[in-house]
Amino acid sequence: MGQRLIDLSMPVHNDMQAFPRVVRPSMAMYETWQQFAQRIGAAQYGVDWLTASYMIVLGDHIGTHMDSLRHLRDNAPGPEGIPLEYCYGDGVCLDFRHLPKGAGITVDDFKAALDKIEYKLKPLDIVLIHTGAGKLQNSDCYGTDQVGMTGEATHWMLDQGVKMAGIDAITFDPPVWAMFERKKFWEAHRVMITREYYHLEKLDEPGPVAAARIQAVAVSGEVGEHDGRSRARGGDRRRPILGFMV
C-alpha cells in the first residue's frame, strides 16, 4: 500500500473562530467571471466568461500557521529564517485528549504519551500535539476547551533535539482563561525568547494519524512586508499552504 497524504491545514473563511484580539479574515469577490470579460474587452468579441478574482484581507494569526522567532524577539528573523530542513522529517502524533480542559501538558504527561506508543524522540523529529480541539474549530468553545504545552514540557521536548512541533488548537499554550487562572502566561511561546524552535498552530483534526508514528511536511509561504533588504521584515509567521502528515 502506498503512502497516504493527509492535509492538516484549516479551512479559512469569513466566520471562522479567531484568537482573542485577532481580527477575522475578510474574503470577498472582487470581480466576477463576466465582469472581468466585460472590463478587459473580451466580451465584445464574444468571450463573455473569463477569470474571477477575490480580495482577501488576512491576519498573520488566522488559520493554520507557523510561528517564527520574530513572534517573540524583536531582533530575530521572520519567516525567512525558518530552516526548511526543520519542516520535513520523521515525527510522532501524541494524544493528550484525555487531559481535562485547560490543563497544561507536563513533562510526565509527555513521557507517558511517548511510552504509550513505545516511541523515543530523536533529534529533528516533528511532534504533533493532539488535543481534540481541531474538531471544535467552528464552535465558540474552540478557544476555551483545549489543553496546551507548559514551559517545562516544551524545554524537555527541545532537550531531545526537537525543533518543530504543532498543535490542533488555537494556541500552543493552554487557553487564555487557564493561563490567567494559574498566573502563567504563554510559557511555551516564551521559550522562543531564549531557545530556537518553531511551532504550528491551528492544525486540523489529525484523525487517522492520532497517536501514530508519522512523516511530517510543512510546505509554507511567507507573509509580511518586504523592504528590498530584509524579506518579510514586518511579518513574524510562515503560513503553511499544506500541513500534512504522511
Structure in words:
The protein has a seven-stranded mixed beta barrel. Strands 2-3 form a two-stranded antiparallel ribbon. The chain has a two-stranded parallel sheet with strand order 6-8. It is built from five helices and twelve strands. The radius of gyration is 20 Å and the shape is elongated. It folds into two domains: about 25-55, no CATH class; about 65-245, Glucose Oxidase, domain 1 (3-Layer(bba) Sandwich), CATH 3.50.30.50. With about 250 residues, it is an alpha/beta fold.
Distance between the termini: 13 Å
- Helical content stands at 10-25%
How many structurally independent domains?
Answer: 2
User: For the record, what is the CATH homologous superfamily label of the largest domain?
Assistant: Putative cyclase
Class from helix and strand fractions: alpha/beta
CATH topology of the largest domain: Glucose Oxidase, domain 1
Strand order of the largest sheet: 4-10-9-7-5-11-12
Shape: elongated
What is the number of beta strands?
Answer: 12
CATH class of the largest domain: Alpha Beta
Gist of the model:
With 246 residues, this protein is an alpha/beta fold. The chain has 5 helices and 12 strands. The chain has 2 domains: 26-57, no CATH class; 65-245, Glucose Oxidase, domain 1 (3-Layer(bba) Sandwich).
List keywords for this structure.
2 domains, two-stranded antiparallel sheet, 246 residues, Glucose Oxidase, domain 1, alpha/beta, 5 helices
SSE arrangement:
Blueprint: E1 6-7, E2 26-31, H1 33-40, E3 53-57, E4 65-67, E5 88-95, E6 104-105, H2 107-116, E7 126-130, E8 148-149, H3 151-159, E9 164-167, H4 176-182, H5 187-190, E10 198-201, E11 213-222, E12 237-245
Parallel strand pairs: 5-7, 6-8, 7-9, 9-10
Antiparallel strand pairs: 1-12, 2-3, 4-10, 4-12, 5-11, 11-12
